Protein: Dextranase
Amino acid sequence: MRIRRFIVLLFLVLLVHGTTAVAQPEIHYSGQVGWNEDSATMTFCTSGSMPVSKEGFFWDVPSTVKRIVIDENVRFTGGFRVLYREPTNPLHIVGRHQKTSVIFGTNEEAWTARQKIAENEKWKYSAISVIEDAVVHVSGLTVRDPRGYLISGYANKAVIHVDSCTLIDTRSGNNNNSDGFAGAAGSSIRNTLISTADDGIKIYNDITLENVVIEHHRNGAPLQFGWGGESRIVNATISNLTIRGIDPEHRYNMAPFTWERGEKSTRNVTINGLDVSTGGQLYDEESGEWVPLGLLELKPANCEFNLKATAVQRHGLPLGMNRTTGTIQLDELPDRESSSLKD
Structure:
């Protein structure tokens, strides 16, 4: 009788295990992959590529996959698209080594323009694009030279958390549309370097930034507060933000904090620790002339911008242009107390 009961229990255990294990999802990748059915983890073990076609280049990550790992010294050429996931089923995209675990896009400049991708569709060709509502954690890797944006999610609940990453565009040209980051309310970026000749971070929804370094190229704003189309109150909480100007001619199309267009919107920005080392000239589109670069370029007069920043280092950078309503409060440190963030 005891033996019979043991056999029945063993059968039930095996049956339950068999029904919960997840089969390896299909993926057309030229390199070697590993699949752990117990943890639902897909590991990219060797460098390789997704198909080069316009859509086949991107893997629609099944909701059954809980974790994607890119091994050390592995370059994954392709992109990840994240569709709807329950809030209790977040996706983790993890690199084993921040510098050598790489998601790579293309050497081609202005890929989205050459492919005639509509302006409001370009974000869907990001290295990581959260197409529908989902929570995604990205950590410990490099995203380089994407076909479209670097990391983005424009769905209402596309919440993205980035930690210990390098988001860069190393190609020449100013029309790669490789904007750095956009996410839904509740997103965050920590301990990360962003360097791209487009907008670094879109402050279109509530966001937290901590220990972030943004390199200021000629094209694009390190922090972009709006291109129009958003009418909402947004709160940004920032600590230890460094912005470094790197244009060799010290000429820029946008200021470090830029708000191009907006309609009856509010941006509330709180910063503890801001170090901005950029300067030179700003191209004024209205006059067609180069004018002194300032910290701010806030254009929409019917919008409100409130900035309260402590431990600020501007290194002589003027305040800049502000046509919005609201208040600007800067508690500045002497230059000698400046302390740059480490990459």
User: Anything to note?
Assistant: Helices lie at 2-20, 111-114. The longest helix spans residues 2-20.
